[in-house]
Known about the structure:
This protein is of the alpha/beta class. The protein folds into 2 domains: 3-102, Winged helix-like DNA-binding domain superfamily/Winged helix DNA-binding domain (Arc Repressor Mutant, subunit A, Orthogonal Bundle), CATH 1.10.10.10; 107-221, NAD(P)-binding Rossmann-like Domain (Rossmann fold, 3-Layer(aba) Sandwich). It contains 10 helices and 10 strands. The strands form 2 sheets. It has a 7-stranded mixed beta sheet with strand order 6-7-5-4-8-9-10. A 3-stranded antiparallel beta sheet has the order 1-3-2. Helix 3 crosses helix 4. It starts with a helix and ends with a helix. 22% of the residues are buried. The model is unreliable at 15-25 (pLDDT under 50).
Amino acid sequence: xxxxxxxxxxxxxxxxxxxxxxxxxxxxxxxxxxxxxxxxxxxxxxxxxxxxxxxxxxxxxxxxxxxxxxxxxxxxxxxxxxxxxxxxxxxxxxxxxxxxxxxxxxxxxxxxxxxxxxxxxxxxxxxxxxxxxxxxxxxxxxxxxxxxxxxxxxxxxxxxxxxxxxxxxxxxxxxxxxxxxxxxxxxxxxxxxxxxxxxxxxxxxxxxxxxxxxxxxxxxxxxxxxxxxxxxxxxxxxxxx
Length: 241
């Protein structure tokens, strides 16, 4: 991406951020718990649209999401409410607003570092397209995969990472490489014009104060949480027997 096009894109994103709803405060300060629930609203509203629903009440959403109606109203009120008393929520309107809050329409460009099993599986899924993220490149050190096309993008040598990030205007990087290389790559990324890292390596990166948003995904932690709940359930059942 040329410098001129990059500037034009940055300006258009900034304009979009300030024009939504005619408000300057596009991103109000809300609790992390509320932010974590926004993707769930996104998914369930998509399902309602597929079902042909035009409006939904907080009570109906509550049954679908297993969240109290009061919690749903509180969550949405953090961003202006979006509903009408006695009517509920216009499904398409609410979906559009949730998409805006989640940046679905921003057209973020992403790259995956690590074209192994996990990286290839992620890129091959429709997840990115559905959420408005365009994967434009993968990077790896394995000669056997370099030059191949995986999903919508080609695999480039890791030595070209910085050059391609600048060339393609990449803003988000997904790390799926072995954890022992995570810190080294993180330091290199800290010098690149990216804005976010989706980190699957299991290694906490020491670049948190470098102006890059980092979302750490610990798949093993999620499995252990499930194991804990299953063990608790079995323990309670044995005690009742």
